[in-house]
Write a structure and sequence with these properties.
By secondary structure, this protein is of the alpha/beta class. It contains 12 helices and 18 strands. It is about 30% helix and about 25% strand. Helix 3 runs parallel beside helix 4. It is globular, with a radius of gyration of 22 Å.
C-alpha cells in the first residue's frame, strides 16, 4: 500500500539523518528522527556515538513544547524497554505528539511491536512501513545481529580488470586510484569494524584506520590469524592503544603470542577451526555477541573465499581498474569448492559508479521471499 508522498518526503530526511550514525552507534541501531508540525521541521536527531542518546530523544529535545500535536518520523520502531535510558515510545507519548510514522518494526524481542502498541494505547496515530526497503538497507547490520546472530558483512575487493589483487611478485600498491581509496575510507567509517586475514596483514602491514575524513571514532580492526603468526611489532600492534584491535585465533595459538598481543592492548577472541581455518560462522557470532553489527572485510583471498563459501557475505563492493595483470597475478578470491555453475549463488547488482579512472560496482545478496 503506497504511503502519503509527504510522509515519504520526511522519512527520506529521517533516513539521511540516521546514516550519520552508521559505524558509530553499535550495538544500537543508527536511528534517524524528524519531528514535523504544520509542514515545518521543528526537531531532528540521530542516534549519537556510542548508541545514546537515541535519535528520538535528540529530536524531541530540539522540538521542546512545540512537539505537542506534531508528527514524528522515525526510521525504526521506537524502543519500549528500560536500558540505560527510558524508552523512546514513552518519551514520544509524554511529549504529546499526535502521530508517529515509522519505517520498520523492530525485531528485537524487547521491542517487537511493543513500541507501536504503547503509542496506539496512548491515542497516537501510528503509520508503519514507510520506505521500509530503504530502512531495511540502512538497518541491515542491526537486523542481522538480532535475527541471524551475526553482523552484516560487506566484502570489498579492489582488482585489475581480470580480477587480480596483486602482481605475481606481490606488488599491489596501488591498483586503483586515490579517489577510489578515499571512497573506501568512507565505507570503513560507516562500518563498526574492518576485517582482514593474516596474509593481508603480513603482506601490507596496514593500519586499517579511516584517514583524511575528520573521523574521530575509528572502527574496530579485526585480524583473522589462527596461529597468531602476526607480530605485535607491526603497525596494528603499535597502534592498538589508539584504535581497537581484535585478534581472532584458533585454540592452538601459542601462549607466548597471546601474551604478547594482550600486552600490546589487543583483545583476543578464540575461535574453533573448520577445515584448517577459522570457523567464520562462529567468528561472526562472537563478533555479534561483542556488539558489532557491520563488518567491512578487505580480504585477502582466503578469508574472502571462506565467507563466500559459508554464505556469510551480504554485499560485494568491487573497485575495478583499467589494467590487466594476467594469469600470474594473485586472484582476489581463494579456492572454492568445485560445483556446477548454476549452484553458485548470484548477487544482484545494486549500483555502479565511475570513481576517477576506476569503476565501482555494488552487489547485494538476494532477499529471501517472505
Amino acid at each position: 500500500m503506497p504511503h502519503d508522498p509527504a510522509d515519504e518526503r520526511w522519512m527520506k530526511l529521517a533516513l539521511a539523518l540516521g546514516r550519520r550514525g552508521l559505524g558509530k552507534t553499535w550495538p544500537n541501531p543508527a536511528v534517524g528522527c524528524v519531528i514535523v508540525k504544520d509542514g515545518r521541521v521543528i526537531g531532528r536527531g540521530w542516534t549519537q556515538p556510542g548508541g545514546r542518546p537515541h535519535g528520538e530523544t535528540v529530536a524531541l529535545a530540539q522540538a521542546g513544547e512545540a512537539a505537542r500535536g506534531a508528527t514524528a518520523y522515525v526510521t525504526l520502531e521506537p524502543c519500549d524497554h528500560h536500558g540505560q535510558t527510558p524508552p523512546c515510545s514513552q518519551a514520544l507519548v509524554s511529549a504529546g505528539v499526535a502521530r508517529v510514522v515509522t519505517a520498520l518494526r523492530d525485531p528485537d524481542p524487547r521491542v517487537a511491536g511493543k513500541g507501536h502498541s504503547r503509542l496506539r494505547e496512548a491515542g497516537i496515530e501510528v503509520v508503519t512501513g514507510c520506505l521500509a526497503d530503504q530502512a531495511r538497507h540502512d538497518h541491515s547490520g542491526f537486523l542481522a545481529r538480532v535475527t541471524e546472530r551475526r553482523p552484516m558483512v560487506t566484502l570489498k575487493l579492489a582488482t585489475s580488470f581480470d580480477g587480480r589483487i596483486a602482481t605475481g611478485r606481490g606488488e599491489s600498491r596501488w591498483i586503483t586510484g586515490p579517489r577510489a581509496r578515499r571512497v573506501v575510507h568512507y565505507m570503513r567509517a560507516t562500518h563498526d569494524a574492518v576485517m582482514i586475514g593474516v596474509g593481508t596483514a603480513l603482506a601490507d602491514d596496514p593500519s586499517l584506520t579511516v584517514r583524511d575524513l575528520g573521523i574521530t571514532q575509528q572502527p574496530v580492526r579485526v585480524i583473522c590469524d589462527s596461529r597468531l603468526s602476526l607480530s605485535p611489532d607491526c603497525t596494528l600492534g603499535r597502534t592498538a592503544g589508539d584504535a581497537p584491535v581484535w585478534i581472532c585465533h584458533g585454540p592452538d595459538a601459542p601462549d607466548q603470542a597471546r601474551q604478547a598481543w594482550q600486552a600490546a592492548g589487543a583483545m583476543l577472541i578464540q575461535v574453533s577451526l573448520d577445515h584448517g581455518g577459522l570457523d567464520m560462522g562462529e567468528l561472526l557470532a562472537q563478533l555479534a555477541e561483542k556488539g558489532l553489527t557491520r563488518v567491512f572485510c578487505e580480504g585477502g583471498g582466503k578469508i574472502a573465499a571462506s565467507l563466500l563459501q559459508a554464505g556469510l557475505v551480504d554485499r560485494l563492493v568491487g573497485f575495478t581498474a583499467g589494467l590487466v595483470l594476467g594469469a600470474q597475478g594473485r586472484p582476489a578470491i581463494g579456492e572454492l569448492p568445485e560445483m556446477a555453475l548454476a549452484a553458485h549463488p548470484r548477487f544482484e547488482l545494486a549500483e555502479t559508479r565511475v570513481i576517477g579512472p576506476d569503476l565501482m560496482h555494488v552487489w547485494q545478496r538476494p532477499r529471501q521471499a517472505p
